[in-house]
Write a structure and sequence with these properties.
seven-stranded parallel β-sheet; alpha/beta
Length: 262
């Protein structure tokens, strides 16, 4: 499918692994110039090398810096003044009992998961509006709707992303700039695999997966972790000119975890 992205520049925050990395590959395959971001030079160099291998001729730029900080965001914007597509993917998660979440942890999760996207959107939306074309996508989660008891602080940040994305979409009314949120369900990313090892020890991943969906996400219709590429497919489309009529939406790719139609 030709998604008409060959003349577009895309920034994907937190894109050296997991869903963000899969999104970067998906956009590169469609011909976009992609700025890959991670916290270290080593991480972004490895990601760029991998993308070059799987997408021959890919146009990949890189930026090493922690985009949960205002300083790194300022440096990024100085280097890349304009982007056509912004995917706010940077995020963290960690299971923790509510009683054990400190004030500092609440602030850290909000800073990384919410304010990183707020700052990047504030930096790049004006240019999109001036050029009358742009795409902003927030990678939220089904946890924005089904707040997980084991990660209430994480769920809070994902709900906040929905409010920000809808509000920004309203601010772009009448333009060719769209702002949407994509809500993955449980996804087999590197972080999830690490978590599986921590929780299950020597138990095979397939066994952990079966137990997880029986105990923690019994409403899932997919009954397995989604692959990162399956999430990236939707995001890549939403970033394209073909998705012009999709705006201000919360688009679920959750495997049917959320038990509502809307």
């Amino acid at each position: 499918m030709n998604l008409r992205l060959t003349d577009k520049t895309a920034l994907v925050s937190g894109s050296t692994k997991g869903i963000g990395f899969a999104i970067a590959i998906g956009l590169a395959r469609e011909g976009a110039r992609v700025i890959v971001n991670g916290r270290s030079e080593k991480a972004v160099a490895e990601a760029k090398t991998h993308i070059d291998q799987v997408v021959p001729g890919a146009r990949i730029e890189s930026f090493a810096g922690d985009l949960s900080t205002a300083a790194a965001t300022e440096t990024l914007v100085q280097r890349f003044a304009l982007v056509d597509i912004l995917v706010n993917n940077l995020g963290i998660f960690e299971p923790r009992s509510f009683e054990d979440i400190t004030d500092d942890e609440w602030r850290r999760f909000f800073e990384v998961n919410v304010l990183s996207g707020v700052r990047l959107s504030r930096a790049y939306l004006p240019g999109m509006k001036e050029r009358n074309w742009g795409r902003v996508v927030f990678i939220s989660s089904e946890s924005a709707i089904n707040t997980p008891a084991e990660m209430i602080h994480y769920g809070m940040t994902k709900t906040a992303q929905l409010a920000v994305s809808r509000g920004l979409a309203e601010s772009c009314a009448g333009t060719a700039v769209t702002v949407n949120a994509v809500l993955p369900g449980p996804t087999r990313s590197a972080g999830v695999e690490e978590l599986a090892e921590q929780l299950s020890g020597v138990k095979p991943f397939a066994e952990f997966e079966k137990d997880f969906f029986k105990t923690f996400r019994p409403s899932s219709l997919l009954k397995r972790f989604a692959m990162t590429e399956e999430v990236a497919n939707l995001v890549t489309y939403v970033c394209s000119p073909l998705s012009a009529a999709t705006n201000g939406a919360a688009l679920r790719v959750d495997g049917g975890v959320v038990q509502t139609c809307f």
